[in-house]
Amino acid sequence: MQTTEPRRLMWLARTAPDRPALSVENAAGEWVIYTTGELYERVRATAGYALASGLERGRHTLIALPNGEGLVRAVLASWMLGCTPVIIPPQATDMEKQALSKDLGEVVGEAFRWSESELATALGPDASRSVFSPRGLEPSLTWYMPTGGTTGLPTLFPVSPGPSTALTGARRLMENARWSPGAVQLSIGPLTHAAPLMMCMAGIGGGSHVVMPRRLDPVSLKSAIERFTPTWCQLTPHQMALVEANQSLWDALCPSLTGMLHTSAPCPEEVKRRWITRLGGKRVYETYSSTQAVGTTICDGDEWLAHPGTVGRPFLSNQVLIADEGGRQLPPGEVGEVFMRSEWTEVFASDDPQRLRRGSRDFLSVGDLGYTDSDGYLYLTGRLNDIILVGGANVSTREVEGVLLTHPEISEVVVVKRPDPLMGEVVHAVVVPSDMKDPPDIEVLREHCLGKISQYKIPLTANFVEALPRSHSGKVERFLRR
User: Fold this and answer.
1) Helices (H) and strands (E) in the chain, counts
2) d(CA 343, CA 317)
3) Structure pTM?
């Protein structure tokens, strides 16, 4: 039987009880270090408190907590009881919470709710609880995690298989990106997103020391880097750009890293090249996957330089298939829908058919478009829901954004569709100008696009904003601009 994650922590607590497992920065800017022994006892006490409070094994727990020891402990305690955590961002708006829970109303309503006060009470001297130890029972689902799915609107998705299988797979991917059990692992992404949480939990269970700043700003990051000297980290392209924009932070982090893995969103070419130049091709890795974990690709910096723009080749037994609208496989170089298959695909294929698009031969899709080259490297070109149908002609929002971003007066841009009584849909640009006091007008932007893209792809209208709405992981939330 595979070792459960709580049992893995128990083994670490017994064999190396004084080894740091998790360090977090509190609200006062002070660092609190939890050893494997301390973390295990806190998790065990928390599970015992939940059991005494009426939580039945195999049920659901609801976690809406900020990054920190409390969130990590709540997840581990839930698993120890064989429960599936339902994880939502603590800062979620009412609209987002409604969207997240619309398919899980009963599950969310009946879940045992972990709050900061409940977690504090669980460790109190008067807490009524029995001594509890893991008994080898894990939930069949790792957790419910927020995802944009195929629509861009947030929803909670059940991540299969169970915690041990999922985190063992994550550790294999991390090891391929030069992570090791003894790593000092910097964790700066929000744990309400798949990659940061998966790699944080995989790191703790794998024996690394996870270091978690309270927030993503130069002061917190500098404090973490100078005190703990991280050797490995997972970042998003947005976070990569923020780090390199601060020279002292950039200089402090890079020398100690044996490897870094970036995820989540397409990485701007200039940002990627600067990280490769600074760290070398064998220390910069990129992976493409999804919250649904239907498949994974990976590449290092040297591979990326040889195949610019790629998100890698299938990792281990994963497979990629590019198909047209009829499900027919397309040859290298032709753009179609990206379908993937992994050892877990069968689990998803037998699940609710509305959650994922099912392709031929049990390959699954999360709605991305792309192509492969003759060497099997995958390239992404857009999303199905990012296609605008202008008078019956397809327009890729990513293609239009790429052209607009070459204008020197544009800092960021999102292209969305707007309804039109004549054309059905038209192209609209939401622009962050370099100078908000003197932005370029729409005619200037349209003229800039002439000759670069077809006339029907050029934005008909535009509005100018100071910043684009982003999720907690740094992704632009397109659905808020539709």
Assistant:
1) 16, 25
2) 7
3) 0.81
